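Q: What would this chain look like folded?
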Amino acid sequence: MVNEFSASASEIFAGAIQDYKRGIIMGSTSTYGKGTVQRNVPFGKPLDDLGIQTEYGAVKLTFQKFYRVTGSSTQRKGVVPDVILPDEYEFLKYREKDNESSLPWDEMDRAKFQVWPNNSAIAAIAAKANDKIAKDTSMIAFKKTLAWVSTQMDRPVHLKLDKYIAFRKQLQSTMIQNDNRLKLKDSMQVTALKADYNKFYNNPDKTKQDRYQAWLKVIAKDPQINEASKLLGEFFAQNWVAKKTN
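A: My prediction, written as structure tokens:
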């Protein structure tokens, strides 16, 4: 599972899973798109034992770029999931491509690599999931509303207080309505792992325990987690059948 904030190592990992066809990537239309590697170059004498603080500060420079085995860089483009799930960040300009000074995407020669042989189920499962999402009325309404909200971000602000307050109320009401569209009507059964049971239910810090349990309730209503669990189950079942057949 990825979204617009999956950057650097996380999208490198997702890209490897996708390229070698070892699983299904699902999430927003693309990951963040950070395919460059930076390093701090210090100036002057070190002022501490670790050399973190230096006499004249430091400058951060880009020295490297990451490429997938397919030859494509993750820079700006990121990783495009096999299954696209809309989310509330889609129209917000958070990705690398939204930075005007970011380095461009490019590619190099494709490397020699071998994909996972038991990958026949991936394309079929992903196509079925994308078709289901495309026809989901809640998802359609969610994306339509989100597109409208995005157009309001750069509109002129009312100078008359009453009109501004009315606009803010309309915006907040629309966002709450959209958030509710992404909540499951029936909660999933979600519980902590055995190793984490005491942290969730016998935690000496009551505040932390309440926070952990509240998180479980949020997860139980999350449609993306629900969809991911279904895809994982289907992926496992089809590959288990393929293994037994072979």
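The two ends are 29 Å apart (CA to CA).
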